[in-house]
Amino acid sequence: MHISAKADYAARALVELACDTARPLTCEAIASSQGIPFRFLKSVVGDLRRAGLVRSQRGCEGGYWLGRAAVEITLLDVVRAVDGDVITLRGEPLDGLDYPGPADGLPAVWREIEDRATAVLAGTTVAALLAASPMPPAPQAGAGATARAAAAVGVPA
């Protein structure tokens, strides 16, 4: 099985954006934080924007925000936004795949793998990935300076 670099980078970018919703993040900041090639990330973020998973803001205070709540974005949304089909065979979708003779049962196995992968991806949200991270999320919009300072050192405000 193969997970594309585009899908991996897209998921990492979305988790990075979900980590701090108080301000937009630039592609440069995301690329630097995640160790992703900047030019490649720009292309990936374009795919995410076209799919409505991120929105952009121009200008000196610009950057990218999540297009909808992290709890509403699944890895299935991400994969479909950047790759299209979840699993392909030699670049072709599994629909209509048919083999003759003794291999006639194999397409059903490939489809079962696709169904299970789709279920895992559909059941995993950006919010769940963020919650599973040992890194504490940045303070959200509206948090006061005291809360931000306390969060930075891990002390309740």
3D structure, described in words:
- This protein is mostly helical.
- 49% of the residues lie in helices and 8% in strands.
- The chain has seven helices and four strands.
- The protein has helices at residues 5-19, 27-34, 38-50, 75-82, 106-122, 126-132, 145-153, and strands spanning 54-57, 63-66, 88-89, 92-93.
- The strands form two sheets. The protein has a two-stranded antiparallel ribbon. A two-stranded antiparallel sheet has the order 3-4.
- The radius of gyration is 19 Å and the shape is elongated.
- The N and C termini lie far apart (46 Å).
- Residues 139-157 have low confidence and may be disordered.
What descriptive keywords fit this protein?
disordered C terminus, 157 residues, elongated, two-stranded antiparallel ribbon, 4 strands, two-stranded antiparallel sheet, mainly alpha
Order of helices and strands: HHHEEHEEHHH
Instruction: Tell me the helix content.
Output: 40-55%
Strand order of the largest sheet: 1-2
Strand pairing plus helix content: what structural class? mainly alpha
Indicate the mean pLDDT.
Answer: 87
**Portion in beta strands:** 5-15%
The separation of the N and C termini measures 46 Å
The profile of the biggest β sheet is: 2 strands, antiparallel
Low-confidence stretches: 139-157
Name the overall outline: elongated
Q: Give the C-alpha Rg.
A: 19 Å
| Total helical segments | 7
**Strands, total number:** 4
